[in-house]
Amino acid sequence: MGGNSNSAKAASRLLDILNVRVVGGGDRVLVLSHGFGTDQSAWNRVLPFFQRDFRVVLYDLVCAGSVNPDHFDFRRYTTLDAYVDDLLAILDALHVDRCFFVGHSVSAMIGILAAIRRPDLFLKLILIGASPRFLNDRDYHGGFEKGEVEKVCAAMEANYEAWVRGFAPLAVGADVPAAVREFSRTLFNMRPDISLFVSRTVFNSDLRGVLGLVRVPCVVVQTAKDVSVPASVAAYLKAHLGGRTTVEILPVEGHLPHLSAPGALVQVLRRALACSNR
Amino acid sequence: MAADSVAGAHLHDLPEPILTQIFSLVEDVRSRNAMALACRRWRCLERSTRAALALRGHVRSPFLLPTCFAAVEHLDLSLLSPWGHHPFLLHYQQQQQYNYLVDQVALVAARLAQAFPGVSSLAVYARDPSVVAALAPLWPGLRAARLVRWHQRPPNLPLGADLAPLLAACPSLASLDLSQFYCWTEDIPPALQEHPVVAASLARLDLLCPASNEGFRSSELADIAAACPNLTHLLAPCVFNPRCIEFVGDDALVALATSCPRLSLLHLVDPATLSPARGDSDAKEDAAITGLGLEGFFARLPQLEDLALDLCHNVKDSAPALEALSYKCPKIKSLKLGQFQGVCKGTWLHLDGISVCGRLESLCIKNSADLTDSSLATIARGCRRLSRLEIHRCDKVTETGIKKLSSMLRSTLVDVSISGCQLLDATRSLRALEPIRDRIERLHIDCIWASPDLDQLPQTPERTAADDSDADDVYDEIPGESRNKKCKYAESNHDDIESSCFWFRTWARLRSLSLWIPAGEVLTPLGDAGLLSCPQLEDICIKVEGDCRTCPRPRQREFGLSFLALYPRLAKMKLDCGEAVGYALTAPTGHMDLSLWERFYLQGIDGLSLYELDYSPPQDKEVNQRSLSLPATGLIQMCSSLRKLFIHGTTHEHFMRFFLGMPLLRDVQLREDYYPAPENDMSTEMRVDSCSRFEEALNSRRIPD
């Protein structure tokens, strides 16, 4: 009993810490998960279209700018698994047993890992700007060369050095090579030590091997011109994801369609969410 | 105080009542704080005589309210932290535990009444009517109230519900200031009509809120005027557009004047003029206000001292009406006219139009297309007491006109603002103000650097001829030291290259400078333009406006704030980039992000020894986001002498923590005072508890002085 109440308290603390918010009404649950460097307000332009029909769950990743920085445990959040733990804990605390999941960028990867762990929990995964591995490999084109990634990390380290010494961290997303620029623009939006740490986590992650373990149907949403996610990645995902996968291409530019072209994205989301009426 | 130590007697030996009286006359807050530190007795005295207090911090814990300030009459609760939040609510108690909220409200309200029994003037952030309903009954003798709200008006609120609790509880209310309170124009007349007693006692009503872009219609204006016959000060936006129904025209103005004959300050403006962006005023349409109508209007307002009629539609041939103004309203001291044509023709030697108003001390003329140099000269001849002049978008005015006016009004003119005039770029404006360079105290210019089309104007020979006659005029009208002035003018005008004479161009009394600069331009040519030496400059306000998405990329890496290090006494800066619009996170390839723009603008700020900074970050209009980015935070953090920092936008908690590294920082607040202010759930960057955590950390540091 004591254990139960403790875990219940810990769960509600987590809801508080990660600013979990449930809006809207409906019998279906939709989880919106943002990518690194933004926070749940990135969904503001998309949210009104789904409030009527869904109970929408929004939350902030632990590295988001609106979360108390003291909660970022550098020992715990070394890989994406810790973020998956957070997501599943939130859904358990809210007593959600089936939901639709929309994840952007790195959250898409978190969604994939969560769906492997708990396939019954997710009715459908909608992955926006997803990529199982960012670094190029022998036969795989992830979009980023090692040298470019090094430049990003160097800029972040310079920021970190400056910040630690009390100087102004001045490098921003636009100072790095063009290929990585769009992606890392949001990464530079975080506190220098957190962003350095998180970007290492992201660039070292490689989920190609586990894609086949996903059983849940997926929709891969990609913009026509996203410098961080080449078109071949969408095809790769379709080929390797274990469940039934469709690919939707948005005729817009950029890595953040929910901010730059919400109208087009909403149409795609509506189509994806309407198809499965289970 | 030191002078009192005569023959061994010390200030401290004075009897208590006299000391109390002395203390109650000191108004400056820092002096009072210093006095309170001297000894316990002085602290008690200081606390018991303080008359004005602004509370910061959170009212969550009622026992933390100070009770020693028993004499406070002006209480400002609008800056309670976190800014804009309901003062009594804890953030997570909005939906649940409603009973607890009611108790909490009652407790805090009772405590406030106990702590400040003598409040006669109150300012409060009234997010919804419950705040006012809780506070107003505590002080039934309230004489002045200022309500602040930049958030959206709560939906489903009946008309007038925001004001009703205040008007019901405070029957002797004399002044109501809603200039920072967003509500609908339909809210005001019903509230006033339902409380006729209070409305009749109202003397001051300020309804000029820049947030709303609607104005009062003629029927609404008439209702307000009828309800408040004793008004002496009225400021209201009105619908002057003759295409709208119920527009305000001659009849409406006359009705207003008939209902409120005691008006001494009247500002009626078109709501479009209140927006912070400088819009295009290409309105060629005429207003429904005519000269004759204005004459009738002025005839009914004999007490008028301060008039502003800032329209967006033309009022033609206004000269006869302005002459009538000076006869019918002999006390007129301050005048602001927007889009009035024919203000002063100045073609003959006699005074006409506005120049007849000899007692005028402050004049502002906006969008007057036919105001010429000779008009200005005539105004200078007629309005000999003019101390403040503002000219906006008067495209026929040239450097010669301003120069002549400033030389003729040398003894009185101390505050000049020149903006938006095509023929007056920064260099020319500063040259035109040469005659009062050593006297001017407040100045505004637009930072337009190179205007190639102005080189077509006739050059030096004609100017020197005109200036000789100027010098003659000056010689005749100002006795005494003008001879030296004439020599100086002769030198400066006959020198071929002016740039070599900058060593004596000191703006000796300039205390406050305001600059407007288009997005993408840099600040550094300010020195070449003529503002190199300003030994007394304390206060600078820089407004950047423009579209960062379409303006060309700046050629330099820095905006040039480090240039301001030339001004030795600069302590207070307001940097308003709020009207610079750009992309926050969604910039297409080839465009600059707002984080890059902020880095451009703020680079070099660490070189200035600023005491206070008011910064508005540039905004991304698509997502209604005004937020500090990483480089901006880092650069502001380097400003080690800063004590007060106000950010008119939001930022992440991670970034706010940077500011804790600034050793002298005492007062920080995020004030989203623009409409619509972000609701807590819409913008998640700076949440309530983030603010509290930050403030606790800030307050727990040791203060060196």
Automatic annotation (TrEMBL), chain A:
Protein name, entry field: Strigolactone esterase DAD2
Keyword Aminoacyl-tRNA synthetase: no
Listed Pfam families: Abhydrolase_6
Organism: Canna indica
Gene3D superfamilies for this protein: alpha/beta hydrolase
Record family assignment: Belongs to the AB hydrolase superfamily.
InterPro entries: AB_hydrolase_1, AB_hydrolase_fold
Keywords: Hydrolase
Residues covered by the AB hydrolase-1 domain: 30-267
Domain of life, per lineage: Eukaryota
GO MF, one annotated term: hydrolase activity
TrEMBL record, chain B:
Biological process (GO), any one: SCF-dependent proteasomal ubiquitin-dependent protein catabolic process
Residues in F-box domain copies: 12-45
Pfam family, one: F-box-like
SMART domains in the record: LRR_CC (SM00367)
GO cellular component, one term: SCF ubiquitin ligase complex
Domain of life where this protein originates: Eukaryota
SUPFAM superfamilies: F-box domain (SSF81383), RNI-like (SSF52047)
PANTHER family found in the cross-reference section: F-BOX PROTEIN MAX2, PARTNER OF PAIRED, ISOFORM B-RELATED
Protein name as annotated: F-box/LRR-repeat MAX2
